[in-house]
Amino acid sequence: MIESIRIRNLGVISETQISLTRGLTAVTGETGAGKTMLLTGLSLLMGGKADPAIVRHGSERADVDGEWILAGSSAQVVRDRLEEAGADIESSDESVSFTMSRTVASEGRSRAFAGGRSVPASVLDEVCSELIAVHGQSDQLRLKSPAKQRDLLDRFGGKQVDSSLQSYRSVHRSWTAARTRLNELRSTSSARIAEARRLTDSVAEIDSVAPLPGEDAELDRQAAILANSGGLLVDIQEARVRLVGEDSGSAADDAVASLHVAIRALERAAQIDASLEPLVHRVRETAVSLSDVGIELASYSADIDADPTRQAWVEERRSALTALKRRYGASVDEILAWAEESRALIAEVADDDSTIADLESDVAQLERDLRSAATELSQARNKAGAILGTSVTNELHELALPDAEFSVRVASAEDSAAWGSHGADQVEFLLRAHKGGPARPLAVSASGGELSRVMLAIEVVLAGADPIDTFVFDEVDAGIGGRAAVEVGRKLARLGRTSQVLVVTHLPQVAAFADVQLVVSKGADGMVTSSHVSAVTGETRVTELVRMLSGLEDSAAGAAHAQELLDLADAARASWNT
Questions:
Q1: Is the distance from CB of 219 to CB of 317 less than 8 angstroms?
Q2: Rounded CA gap, 338 and 206, in Å?
Q3: 446 pLDDT exceeds 70?
Q4: Are 471 and 501 in contact (CB under 8 A)?
Q5: What are the strands of the beta sheet with 425-432, ordered from one edge?
Q6: Which domains does the chain have, with CATH numbers?
Q7: Distance of alpha carbon 292 from the chain centroid
Q8: Which of 46, 281, 429, 533 gives 16 a disulfide partner, CB atoms 3.0 to 4.6 angstroms apart?
Q9: Which residues contact 249 (CB under 8 A, 6 or more apart)?
Q10: Residue 43 is inside which H or E element, if any?
Q11: Dihedral over Cα of 86, 91, 95, 100: its sign
């Protein structure tokens, strides 16, 4: 749960720190005092949009810090995500404690922190989505959405619905991928055949030339040799003579002969100083190496072919390869790679007919599997819908709607092409508000007050099936009063026995049931320039309830009524404890 929230320079709030506990906490105060700033601060901690307009006038930035302590299954999920983000947390086998913060600069920049480490705001959103359920006027409007109704039913259905949904989605992904591939092959068949024919002609052109890997580089080398064979022979011959001398064997000053003279001199010296022996070996190795070079140069000279016929053939071959390069690649190796890819595509197109037949068979089988999975999912939803309808109806009876009947309709579309990742079902919540009346879709039948109570009833039922650590309700009691308001307060207090509940309310009947009541008040001058938050107890709380009841803080009748509401709430809590 949230242990505390600290706010600085947010809207009309200069600085305040709120300590929260498990149970029901009511936030009250005059209109315009800044109650919504508390929810704005919480929204920032949840990774919501950061609008620089919320920064207090004259301040450089607004800051919101929240402290959490969690236990149970949610603790492990949150621990893993925060550790992945690099946050510093305090944890044990049973609980995890951490902080999350948000700063919004007046010029527009915002930063998010988790466990003292800077993180993307999306991390705050991911963590809080596991911990907090927020409901306000806009959520009541979303409750009219078929998609929202389906999500609520699936959430209530728990593991049974989720297992069926995951199985359906797995088959749906395979079915969608196979259909997409089949449609692509069918729609591009003519174009693919034409492309294969073009590629066949191109590959035939390449095969007629039959280039070899690296051949272009080798031909360029040969062409350079043939074009400069005369000068090349002269240079090679001079180098060979300088190294190993003339073939006549007459005395010469070539390098090898000089080395042999040096060897003999060193051998004589080494007989006197044996340490020179390594140098003798090195000079001998040099002489042998130079002799080998001379032999290779002689062989190279013999291989130089200045034949004009050979030169013409090389140039003709280079011209043929150049023509291929202009169309298929910058080198022979690229041309050969392109040809291999083209052959693979040609073979693939040749197999299109059999591929299409195989895909048609796969799609047919996958559709049968999909229909089976969709049926299983619909059955799970219908079963969950029946239980949800009965449970919400019972809750509505306790919320001063004694004749109301809530039900869930699950209608499945027959055409699989219309099915999405959520299945074949259209989910619709129905409400019969009065005895004898027809059950009508919630989207068109419920008044504002009825919609508030339906949403609260659903959350109470869901809390029993899928507990949430913290519920936040923003004036969800709008449009109701009297006995209905008392029952809403009672229901919120009952929900607070298993979860942390924070409600912003104008109704004293709701506030009286709170375990803690926080009052947001304006500055002493009565202007909305500064607000602060304080917990009220005892007579101070009675005074606040009187203000909410009549606006007359000194009214004795109002005080009596306020005390009566508090006594009613105390009696309810006492009955729950027995």
A1: yes
A2: 10
A3: no
A4: yes
A5: 405-412, 425-432, 440-441
A6: 1-131+468-532 (3.40.50.300), 215-330 (no CATH)
A7: 67
A8: 533
A9: none
A10: helix 35-45
A11: negative
Phi, psi of 162 (to 5 degrees): -65, -40
CA distance 2 to 469: 9
> In this structure, what token pair is assigned to residue 26?
């009511």
Max Cα-Cα span within the chain: 140
Rg, Å, the chain Cα set: 43
DSSP state of 276: G
**Residue 411 CB burial class (10 angstroms; 0-12, 13-18, ≥19):** exposed
Q: Tokens 């030339």 — which residue?
A: 209
**Interval 473-524: pLDDT, tens:** 887 666 677 888 888 888 888 888 888 999 988 889 999 999 999 998 876 5
Tell me how long the chain is: 578
pLDDT digits (tens, 9 = 90+) for 96-125: 888 899 999 988 889 999 888 888 888 888
CA angle 387, 392, 398 (to 5 degrees): 135
Question: Which amino acid is present at 308?
Answer: P
Is residue 346 classed exposed, middle or buried when 0-12, 13-18 and 19+ CB atoms within 10 A define those classes? middle
∠ CA(193), CA(196), CA(197), 5° rounding? 90
